[in-house]
């Protein structure tokens, strides 16, 4: 007599892993979604205030590990053994690991301990702006992660293409969910109709933006986001049009900026407002002050902030670089230029100022474009991946 299959009644154990505290922002709502779908979910991450708060909000246990973001052989070996111990204790059915270090050590540990279904969420490649031996070394690490994985979720089609072009993985193992993004965009938060108009007007006055045409940037202030090109292009255009302003939301990460004098130039430029870091919940308010959003990045995994701006009805300028090209519908809700090109960026700043009605239409189009990136679309895609491992 055939015995009934009772496995479907047992909750599958899922461990989601990240390397650094800020990455919890890339998982908002996702873990709670999978708890409600019947999974027993854990977060594996370093212990930190934002991580603890996130786990409480998502109602998931924290599997705390000590992990260095940069390469540190002795510490990395200790982390590897720590993760092996975690996996042997929890005995997960599925691991989903994203961000480079936890993906490398975690995927090796998952293979060693025989985790049945191993998923790598590929959020972009650090080797993109490297050359020579360092580039080759970083590519070899990505190949190890890919070899240990059963499935690879690339958060944009351009990331997938680059991974295949570099021989990191093959087409049958890697894919992108819907139009991209790892977690979608919260359209309830990024809603132009929900903006507090009084607070927006107060902020406009505080930063002396009244009567100005405002270009804006939100994100970490680091070289690879194209901040050098942004400064020089804006400075050149400001000399033509002193009604232009550049509103910068974010803070410098000094270890990722070679030209430290550049930040001094930002701070002392008469047309640039350095507003500093803002909580994620306040970002929509500051986006609402902008006429055009600008992200001239060298590369991204996926340009989430471009979708956030689009959702707020702001036209965007970005580049034809990995992860940026996927987040903009070129000519529909914004325009794409060549990465590293200050000349093209100057032309585009000028174009948007001189074609303001077209820019407003692109902003309206962006609200529709952003609907492709609702979190539920991405979560359902991830759920389908998890189910495929049965």
UniProtKB/TrEMBL annotation:
Residues 31-156 form the Glycosyltransferase subfamily 4-like N-terminal domain. Coiled coil: none annotated. Residues 201-369 form the Glycosyl transferase family domain. It comes from the Bacteria. One of its GO terms (molecular function) is hexosyltransferase activity. This is Glycosyltransferase family 1 protein. It comes from Flavobacterium magnum.
């Amino acid at each position: 007599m055939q015995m009934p299959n009772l496995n479907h009644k047992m909750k599958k154990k899922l461990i989601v892993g990240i390397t650094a505290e800020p990455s919890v922002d890339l998982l908002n709502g996702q873990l709670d979604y999978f708890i409600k779908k019947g999974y027993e979910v854990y977060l594996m991450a370093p212990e930190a205030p934002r991580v603890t708060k996130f786990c409480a909000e998502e109602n998931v246990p924290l599997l705390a590990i000590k992990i260095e973001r940069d390469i540190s052989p002795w510490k990395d070996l200790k982390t590897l053994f720590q993760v092996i111990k975690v996996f042997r204790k929890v005995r997960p059915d599925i691991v989903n690991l994203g961000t480079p270090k936890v993906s490398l050590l975690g995927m090796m540990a998952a293979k060693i301990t025989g985790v049945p279904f191993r998923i790598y969420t590929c959020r972009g490649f650090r080797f993109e702006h490297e050359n020579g031996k360092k580039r080759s070394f970083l590519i070899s690490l990505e190949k190890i992660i890919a070899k240990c994985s059963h499935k690879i979720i690339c958060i944009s089609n351009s990331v997938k293409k680059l991974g295949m072009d570099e021989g990191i993985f093959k087409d049958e193992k890697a894919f992108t969910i819907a139009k991209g993004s790892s977690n979608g965009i919260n359209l309830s938060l990024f809603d132009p109709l929900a903006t507090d108009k009084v607070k927006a007007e107060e902020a406009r006055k505080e930063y002396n933006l009244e009567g100005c045409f405002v270009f804006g940037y939100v994100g970490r202030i680091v070289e690879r986001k194209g901040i050098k090109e942004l400064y020089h292009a804006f400075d050149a255009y400001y000399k033509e049009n002193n009604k232009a302003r550049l509103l910068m939301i974010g803070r410098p990460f000094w270890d990722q900026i070679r030209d430290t004098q550049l930040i001094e130039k930002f701070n002392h430029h008469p047309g640039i407002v350095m507003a500093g870091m803002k909580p994620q919940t306040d970002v929509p308010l500051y986006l609402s002050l902008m006429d055009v959003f600008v992200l001239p990045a060298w590369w991204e995994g996926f340009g989430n902030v471009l979708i956030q701006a689009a959702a707020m009805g702001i036209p965007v300028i970005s580049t034809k670089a990995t992860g940026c090209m996927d987040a903009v519908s070129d000519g529909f809700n914004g325009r794409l230029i060549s990465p590293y090109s200050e000349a093209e960026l100057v032309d585009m700043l000028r174009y948007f100022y001189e074609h303001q009605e077209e820019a407003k239409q692109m902003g309206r189009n962006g609200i529709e474009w952003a609907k492709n990136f609702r979190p539920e679309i991405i979560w359902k895609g991830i759920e389908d991946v998890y189910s495929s491992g049965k």
